[in-house]
Amino acid sequence: MQTDHVAYLTQMGIDCYQLSHPERLTGYQAPALELPAECKLLLVSPVSPNGELALLFERVLKSINISLDQARHIYPEQATQLAGQSMEWVWFAGCERTEQLAEKALTTPLLSEIDGNNQQRKALWQQICSY
């Protein structure tokens, strides 16, 4: 299920569930995720950025000239469902780097661990500058 649909259902007070390991079900084919063509950065993280973390995420995007509309979030278990798409940037935050989805890949702790931590912010900035 797309993250937008999950957010809408949650706002309406409707519980939704997603299989953590759909590959364990015999014959089950997880639907492929298709990202919009304008997507330049994909955030792969077990936690969706909200509130203060969303502001941090937006500031990082601005530093690499990407708008919030050009970024998407998926959970780590959804990375295998991407339909052979590649984008400019993939940011793995708080999870293992699983696949080569883009030429420019960032690997950091969770956004909550970066916020207010100058050492983590510096490490993130060094990764960005290396590209």
Write a short abstract of this structure:
Keywords: DNA replication, DNA-directed DNA polymerase, Nucleotidyltransferase, Transferase. 28% of the residues lie in helices and 17% in strands. It is an alpha/beta fold and 131 residues long.
How does this model look, in words?
One of its GO terms (biological process) is DNA replication. GO terms for molecular function: 3'-5' exonuclease activity; DNA-directed DNA polymerase activity. InterPro entries: DNA_pol_III_psi, DNA_pol_III_psi_sf. This is DNA polymerase III subunit psi. This protein has a domain of 90 residues: DNA polymerase III, psi subunit (Rossmann fold), CATH 3.40.50.10220. The N and C termini lie far apart (32 Å). The protein is 28% helix and 17% strand. The chain contains four helices and four strands, in the order αβαβββαα. With 131 residues, it is of the alpha/beta class. The longest helix has 12 residues. The chain has a four-stranded parallel sheet with strand order 2-1-3-4, with helices on one face.
